[in-house]
Every structure is written in structure tokens, then in C-alpha cells.
Amino acid sequence: MDRDALADFLVRHRAALAPADVGLGPGARRRTPGLRREEVAQLATMSTDYYTRLEQRRGPQPSTQMLAAIARALRMTPDERDYLFRVAGHSAPERFAVEGYVAPALMRVLDRLHDTPAMILSPLEEPLVQNDPARALFGDADLLSGWERSAIYSWFQDPEQARTVYPLEAHAHHSRARVASLRAAYGSMGPQSRAAELAELLHARNAEFAQLWDSQVVARRFEDHKVVLHPQVGRIEVDCQALLTEDASQVLLVLTAPPHSEDAGKLDLLATLGTQSVAGPPNWRTVSP
């Protein structure tokens, strides 16, 4: 681990970002340019003391999860992220394998979406980032861990919870779409990837998944229109727009409803109520491709 190189790299990146670049307000007058350390720590969901020690060349070697979170917070490109990993004493990760890292271009778009549900997903339909309206609609993904973060896994392993988000008549379609999406991810990520691990796990545990997987259907697309069921406001019809990175490793999904419609009013109500409107255990299940 090269503590000097790591500290210098972090300081330079922090100084190059303005609050507006990461979706923050200007706040009080700043004596120096760039983000404050506490702002980077907040964006990376770590303590300010931990991040400060890294910049002061006295922190412990950060884990790969911590580094991915810092790279996301500082809006690093994949090449910059790889450099960060190396100076911190880790090998550069595979481009599809970094948990917690988000493409800067998608983050810049998400930072500007405050009034409509939006989220960034991995190829395995794991939430990387959600805005507040998305949490209000689907629940807080940060309350989930491990494979439970994958909507593909939850759809087949926890159907009583996951499938309540969509009408019964749409369940078969969502099953086919999720398996086809995982097959596409498997093709991109390879036989030694997490996509392969997930496919093997579900094939052994779920007969419906095994039958669909063996049909060899491949698709990586997102519907233009869907119906979501919310426990408080009921049925909501939304339009879904998808923005993918160039390598299709991540996707930004934005859900909207026609202006002044009843469905738009329901989305506004959820945004006003916030995440506290979701009662009981976390019910985050992302939209299906």
C-alpha cells in the first residue's frame, strides 16, 4: 500500500469536485475549493474520521468495498478507480466485478433527478444507488445484503415478498424477463463470474428458474410501461426509461407518469411521504428488464 500516493490522489480528486457535481447544495461559504472531507465520507457512507485518516497517511489499508465506495463518491472513471485500487495495495478489479462502484456519467444524471424515482443497477439487478423517491416506492435497498440485493435472486427465492410488487398476471412475464437478463449477464461476465454463480445457485434450488434457464433465452432490455403495486398508495402505472453505460455493465432506470395524471399524483404523494411510508420489513424489488 502506497500511503502517500493514495492520500495525494484522494486530496486532488476531492479538490476538483464542486458540491453541485455530486448533487449537493452549495452550503456555507467555503474557504477552499472542492468538497469537504465530511461530504465525501457521507457520499461513501463511511465515517469522516476513517476517510480523514486515509488523506492524512495514517489510516489502515481500505478494503475493496471501501475503495469502491470512495471511487463512487469522488465520481472516478474506471481507469481512475483501477489506479486507486492499486495504490491502496489491491489488484485492479475486473470491470464487471466491482460491487458499489457506479459509472460517473450515470451518477451525474441521477444527481439531478430529485422528483421522480430513479436508481442505478448492476447486471444482476442489484441496487447500486437509489434516490429518495425510489426508496419511497420500492423500499430502502441498503437494508438488504448479499444475494438478497439481487432482484433476480429474490424473485425466485423469496416470491411471497418479491412478487407482491407486481400484479399476479404479470408474474410469468417477469420470471421470463429476469432469467433472460441473467443469461445476458452470464454471456458478458463469463463462466467464472457472479452471474454464473447466481445461475448455478438458482438452477439447483428453483424448478421454475431451471426450466426457464434451460430454454436458453437471452435478452437485456427494459419495458417502456409497467404496473407497480405499493402497500400504501396501491396500483401505479409508470413509464420506464433506461440509460446504459457503453459496456452495458450498469443501467440507470427512471420511472415517470404522465403529468397531472392520477399516477403522477401517487408518485408525488410517495415522494412527500418519504421512505417512512413503507411499513414493515424492507420491500425493495427492482423493476424487471
UniProtKB/TrEMBL annotation:
InterPro entries: Cro/C1-type_HTH, Lambda_DNA-bd_dom_sf, MLTR_LBD. It comes from the Bacteria. Gene3D superfamilies: 3.30.450.180, lambda repressor-like DNA-binding domains. Residues 34-81 form the HTH cro/C1-type domain. PANTHER family: BLL4672 PROTEIN (PTHR35010:SF2), BLL4672 PROTEIN-RELATED (PTHR35010). This is Transcriptional regulator with XRE-family HTH domain. It comes from Brachybacterium fresconis.
